[in-house]
Input
Amino acid sequence: MNRLGVENLSVSLGGKRILSDLSAEFVGGQFSAILGPNGTGKTTLLKSIMGVTSYQGEVNLHTGMDSGPINQVSYLCQLNKSPSQLTVIEMVLLGLVNQLTWRVTEQQQSRAEEMLKSLGLWSIATRRFNALSGGQQQMVAMAQALISTPKVLLLDEPTSALDLRHQVQVLDLAKQYTRESGAITIAVLHDLSLAARYADQLLLLNHGNVVASGEPKSVLTSELLEQVYQVEVDVGLCSQGHWHVTPTRPTRHDVVW
Output
């Protein structure tokens, strides 16, 4: 079974400590969600795992056969409108950049087509990426992240530009991929109810530290959420058995950005 270990991870940017001696373990076949207020280090944690941010500590992927630095990782960053004039299918094929040569094979083309069809994007396969809406671009980016069948899938606010239907579609796809492939999926999510519905494990951060980790029922407590988010909440089970979180009122009246 794949395991991703993060040990004593610390990150400082511009002289400011972002993460402090953070340790966590992520298991293959499980969908993990990173939660916490803005500026608490969620994206920095993903970038450290990806290897694009300098850090102190250890990040290692254990596959059962060997262990060592992270490889075979796909990272879906927060949406930024792109000026790329590539077509949608060409953008998806870029997810195979380490496998591509001067000519796209029939197998690679077929994989890209299947991925677009699974996300309901086949009708726009030949459109220019820069002509798409923000939500469409995010869906195409998801297809690009999955096509290489990564061992580790990192999603930074993957639903931020999507309507409710497409939020569910993307998270359903990520959860299905995680279970079927045995991949380690880690997503930064702001919607606590969505996180509770999809995540097997939650990691709650505050000021660069792990406040709580575990199953949704142990992390999403009114006491912890009030402490971290400075807001009173109602936490309960919906009719389908998923935990849901409803904010009621802030516990502090000063504005914090």
Q: What stands out?
A: The chain has a mean pLDDT of 89. The chain has eight helices and twelve strands. The radius of gyration is 19 Å.
